[in-house]
Write a structure and sequence with these properties.
globular, 4 helices, 276 residues, 17 strands, alpha+beta, 17-stranded mixed β-sheet, Diaminopimelate Epimerase, Chain A, domain 1, 17% helix
Amino acid sequence: MHGLGNDYIVIDDRNERIPQKELSKLAKRLCSRRFSVGADGLLIVRNSETADFRMRILNSDGSEAEMCGNGIRCIAKYCYDNEIVKKKKMNVETLAGPRRVEILEQRGNLADVRVDMGAPSFRRDDIPMVGKGECVNAPFKIDEREFNITCVSIGNPHCVTLVSNLESFPVNEIGPRIEKDSIFPKGTNVEFITVKDEGEISVRTWERGVGETTACGTGACASVAVAHRLGKTGRNVKVNLLGGKLFVRLGSTITLEGSVEKVFEAKMFGDDSIDN
């Protein structure tokens, strides 16, 4: 499945046949492009005692993420299509806390899905990030290049910076440098943004544990939260990404809306511990 090209392999593992110790290895093996199925990440459906189901998110490098805006929208459609959840409004348990998701419209393999992402936090402790208080429009230097960064948690860490020319910006050079900087003890996602007007921005995202992706749901939310905090946008913003458009609304919480699509189904064979 994918949301604007941000693609995921979804596995129903409510019977927990996949051992915990196998998850990281399985994600790396399945998500390897050209050598396997290929994806930005692996989504696991598990039973939950507090919600309609629980979502586990493994990045393509095998690390686990707390939250994923496109991933949770994909997995919601999967669970609705397969009658794991028989209602269009559902609660999902994640490592970032419970999230409310709604299937807005179904068009076969396509669906428009909205998710309440919770309230953003600019506190360094919540991101997490070294230091006290907030990091808002603060100088940050890489070699001889200086950026102004604003950091925010959307259930997972984000570092956002405004750039003048998004198309030519060296995301693949600067992104990993910021992601792995020691100021972020758990690493961070990195967003590079330009603002068109108060209702529209463009974003490129370097995802922690993945690399540059065509879209990032939490990244879109983080970018709007930061742009609004800096006085650049209003509360209803269209976010242009490499893979298409997402729509973000700021209120007491952040809502994210956009399309997701099921691409294909398959069965896997040939592993010593996981046979299908």
